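Subject: Sanity check before I submit

Could someone independently write out the structure tokens for this chain? I want to compare against mine line by line before I put it in a report. The sequence has 60 residues.
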Amino acid sequence: MEQLKDNLVAGDLILDEAATKKLDAVSAPTPAEYPYGPFGVLQRHRYVDSSKEAIMELNE
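---
Independent answer below. Compare away.
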């Protein structure tokens, strides 16, 4: 219940433009990771039979 109450109070929080921009900047995916990271590269040529091969390649 305590966590629920804390979360409900946070619903009334209004961030100013500077705080919103800062949060957007730190949470934005970087081009090196998404969608071009190791897993994203493997998704371009998805395996039909199983993802086991993709997982094995990531572990190499």
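---
OP: Matches mine. For the report I'm noting this point. The chain has a mean pLDDT of 78.
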